[in-house]
Amino acid sequence: MRTASRTANRTSRPILAACLAGGLLSVGVAHEARAQQPAPAPAPAPAPGTTGDTLAIAATEPTEVPLKLRGFYERRASKRGHYIDRQQLDASTGKRLSEVIRDLPGVRLMPSSNSSVTAVRFRGCQPLVWVDAVRNVGDELDAAIALGDVEAMEVYIAPGTVPAQFRDMRQPCGAVIVWTR
């Protein structure tokens, strides 16, 4: 019987508190204090052409972010690298990923010695290339993935700016992290 009353007490306390807070129950002092308060000011009239039920919000990133892109948007807020999203890729005149990043400081493009793709170099070394968090060992950026398959891209020129989960201490260079559609 004691257990039942304890449980009832635990569940009724939040309900009682909510009722007090919502004004459903009143206690003498609280009721008197509330009676002495001035009436709240009327709400401002809605803007012309609106019903007053709308709320305008300016967003800089999608409201529904796919799970694999959450890290991209979190890291983009840190501003430690260069971040290119799908909208920027669509606006770019580049036909390959290397052409999209060619104007970033520290990026140099050159003909690749072992394939027909362009070699990307960050301060003289080959950057690590990651596609959907999987490292592409030895691949040039353009050989790893086509521009049309990319949703977002992170570019870290200096090795010290590369997020820890995408670093390789044996190859101290920057990294390009690509996220597919």
Describe this structure in words.
- This protein is an alpha+beta fold and 181 residues long.
- The chain has 2 domains: 2-36, no CATH class; 67-180, Beta Complex (Ferric Hydroxamate Uptake Protein, Chain A, domain 1).
- The protein is 30% helix and 18% strand.
- It is built from 6 helices and 7 strands, in the order αααβααββββαββ.
- It has helices at residues 2-22, 28-36, 70-78, 86-91, 97-101, 141-144; strands at residues 82-85, 107-111, 118-122, 128-131, 134-135, 150-156, 175-180.
- The strands form 2 sheets. It has a 5-stranded mixed sheet. A two-stranded antiparallel sheet has the order 2-3.
- A hairpin with a 6-residue loop joins strand 2 and strand 3.
- The longest helix is centred in the first third of the chain and has 21 residues, at 2-22.
- Mean pLDDT is 78; it is low at 1-35.
- InterPro entries: Plug_dom (IPR012910), Plug_dom_sf (IPR037066), TonB-dep_rcpt-like (IPR039426).
- Keywords: Cell outer membrane, Membrane, Signal, Transmembrane, Transmembrane beta strand, Transport.
- It holds the Pfam family Plug.
